[in-house]
Queue: 2 jobs
Job 1
Amino acid sequence: MDYDICIIGGGPAGYLAGIRAAQLGAKTAVIEMDELGGVCTNRGCIPTKALLEVSAPILSSEKWSDMGVGVRCSLNIKTAMTRMNDVVGYIRAGIKALLDSNGVDIIKGKARFIDRYTLKINDSQTVSSKFILIASGSSPALPEIEGIKQEGVFSSDGIFTMKEVPERVAIIGGGAIGIEYATIVKSFGAKKVVLIEFMDRLLPLMDPDIGSYEKDVMEKLGIDIVLSHKASRISSSGKGMKLDLEPSSGSTAGRSTGPVDVDRIFVVTGRKPNTAGLGLEAIGVSASKNWIDVNRAMRTSVDNVYAAGDVNGIKLLAHAAFHQGMIAVENMLGAKKIFEPLLVPSVVYSKPPVAMIGMDERAAQKAGMNIRTGIFDLANSPMALVHGEPSGFMKILSDKKYGLVLGASIAGEAAHELIAVFAGGIAGEMTVDELRKAVFAHPSLSEGIAEAAWAVDGLSQHALKKGTS
Amino acid sequence: MISHVLMPKLGLVMKKGRIIKWYKKVGEYVKEGEPLFQISTEKVTIDVEAKSSGYLRVLYAMPGTIVPVSGIIGLIGDKDELLPDIKPPVYEIDKKGIDDSNVPNTGGAGLKPVSVDKDRNNDIKASPAAKRFAKEKGIELSKIKGTGPDGRITETDVSNYKPEESTHGIDRSSGIPATPYARKLAQEHGVSMEHIVQTTGERKIYAQDVADFVPDTGAEEASVLMPMTDIRRAVSDRMSYSAHTVAPVTLGMEVVAEELLKLKYALSLSYPSDKVTINDILVKLVAVALKKHPLANASLEDNAIRIHKVINMGIGVAVEGGLIVPAISNADKKSILQISRESKDLIERAKTGRLTLDELSRGTFTLTNLGAFGIDMFTPIINPPQSATLGIGKITKKPWVADDKIEVRSTMVLSLTFDHRIIDGAPAAQCLLTIKQYLENPYMVFGA
């Protein structure tokens, strides 16, 4: 055997698995056919955050002038894009350096299974390995819409090559990507941005309270939101396009919204696994609609082959991929670890952001659990007031009997960072008692966490006295 | 003049009462007859009135304090009167269900009451020396393993006892790393962390490890712990007191209820709005019958039997969470109509907790009717210190032999439980027979 562990794909699941495998003493190779870092680094998390960082001062200029600081923002989109690419390049180089320093071989090329121990790279080189981790990721999936193959229609990848800001933009898909893209193009100067969601609320996979908060955020930004609709047809119209919408089936939205005239369309509705050409049929790995089936230890139906990251379809998030990749290689080397989706936070980097982890009420009720909810309104947070962003909430879901923290939702400034308290807490099987015992700095947004923990029993101190919600 | 505020004795078996709240603050003026404090005791929570007027100067018992009968709980006197030098008494405290938000101050410099937590050491087998020693050292006897005969704790056991680390109320296993949730689970199931085997390969014990150790943690809750309310506890205490002290014997006798039903019907025609019940009629008839059998209307006191001259008929009333027995006074002398009206009033006030102490404690005999629940006969338990109680079954039609013919009759079964320490079987049977005669021939009360 050439290797102990071969990893197909150098994205978040793959490169971290490579480092972890090397740490554990395995002879390891990462096979990457494109750029190290995967979608996250190159066309996802990182570049969008780089652009959203540019949106931030533009969107808060009003707030600053309310505080007495006159700010006029002007955007140089070329500089913004260059910086974005610099950030991406820097991180990519860092990944390579990390793999090198850990002694992980990087093999450039596309891998295909010959048998369960053997991979062919670019139909030339052959490598053999005791264990193989499939971490080949996912790609944007474009839905069947008449006329979708227009020049002005882009997938989620299309924003990173934007040279100028289109005047009228439609974004199909009201999930995390759609919301972040809407924020970027609107703040960059688009006159009209329409966000279209099939379901009856934004962020349908998150806590409903988060969805309605996000709707307010988007509307405050001047983004038009069309819920319970889908795109039915795209046609060219004048120098732009005409987008026809129809109510999503089973929707109670009633009257259809009229067509939308736009210059550019981003279709960010879904993704598909990158399994084509891997030769999975040669080794008989089972998959569902091409997403590779794995157990909680990340093992596939073939016992020396594991799959981590987007390609198994469990949780399409870079940080989930990090964990799955590490768990997979540790299990290859004898550990008995499992991946727990409820420990994975979901974050949307709108301005302000929203975040959630664990269960929401729907999931808990479905599981027949006896729960309590505590909500703290950030309008009552001194720090939020100081920051000039007194909106949002912190919500804790706990089990009624023990106060075990089952989930949390945060909407408002720094939600993406504050959710970390719960990421650690839920992993450590924390109860609301610990959150009440913990001392949070004053003033800080984090104080709201303790308040929400008290609110579970209707005892939030910095909220007017009333029942819990 | 300084007067002592004492825990009143309400009823013969009352030994102690629990202060629920004070209506006056220290320094406030209270008029004689005004409600001064509330206690919970035998079956009810009740307001106690001030026995004299004056300023409330000192409190010795905060809400939650359990005070023996005649124990001092406060002082009333003039505003600036010199207070006597009274050693503050030491009482048990049971804060359960007490609203702490409004605890009064105690008043009086140097006269702070000393209260100790309920002393659980009393129920545990230990030598008196061990008990004293444990009390001195502030050790709970339940934590000590006794090595004497029958597990009795000796003084040596107390001195050998090494307290566990208990700064956080967690046992010694607090040194073992575990998640907060795992700890709570283990505590609930009474499992020490020391015994739990770590299986996940992590460095601390997770809930899953506890669940693996205690097989039923994941299952539905098998039981629910329901704290005892004051009334439940009172019923419980009285019932076990009764069961442990009384020598009960139950006699059963079937009676024909035709005349009772006729009388009820007649009363309903004359007084339709009063809705006289069979029970109202029984109260009267049984009370009159008791006049002939004074031992059934008596109570045992120390070494004497007290024969009550009055017949106060207690009626069992089921209330939320318990049972209370208000009594209709002089039931033998009252008309059925009067009894019916008083009875309805008592039941109504029993359900809303507005009975007076007198109404609750004056009973000399008790009637319990389970007929409405379809019960034919039962063995009622005696309401101490009374000497007997009568259980009434349901009225039902059945074949009955009369003049050697089988006829349909409405009948019911009476169950008389008597305390054999006071009455013997034969007189008790005679008493039941008299009751039967009156029930079958109600007009006989006119000759009684």
Job 2
Amino acid sequence: MKNVLRIKVLDRRDFVLGAGAAALLGGFFAAIPEARAITGSAEFEAALAELLKGATPRIGGVDMDLPGSVENGDYVPVGLGVESPMSDASYVKAIHLLSPANPRARVATFKFTPLSGKARVMSVMRLAKTQEVVAVAELGDGTLLMSTRSVDVKVGGCGT
Amino acid sequence: MKKPPRIKIPEGIKPGDVIEIKTLATHIMETGNRKDAAGNKIPRDIIHTFTAKFEGREVFSVALGSGIAANPYFAFFLRVPGPGTLELTWIDDDGETTVEKVPLVVA
């Protein structure tokens, strides 16, 4: 199954750049990633589609603390977080950690409650090869945030 | 678990503090993707669930896949409502359940 998901990149530049402004700033506009494909293994694309359920996530907003390059993919420290008051009215329900190139796409789902106080977790993951790790956060009101982080892996983990 | 998990909690906790809790379990986290010398698949054996509760209320939990490294480490946070007991649970593929209860000293 090859199911390429087109993720619209929404940020403040989309609001700033109206049609007229786009004409004036043609060169600048061309440099903005309008939409980009987040691709990976069939299992990864199915897992991402299942999480997004057809909705468009906001790009950014999940802090991803991962090294840019690692010698050993068996042991890759990973920090994930979303700024949130973590109150009953406004909190982060979960952060899903996905790998586009590991044998298994779903690395972990971290679930939070207002009692967490902070939507932040540190752990250690495996990376089979160089790839762009994906984090999807689910807020209490259903909003989805998505961030990615590239990690260069010299020697892969996961027993591959 | 062969060895009990290591749990680190800060001292001098006051009600309302958001504290960081660090946990380290001992587990091979066998992925299920590897083969032995004879070419047979080594079956998956991982901790698949970690849960932290405070006085019976869920604080934080993890559904782990095989992409979490051996000896799963989690550092997470708790907004301390007052004195009480933190209950941490790890469950693996063999159904082995490890439970640690940590009373929090809250001044």
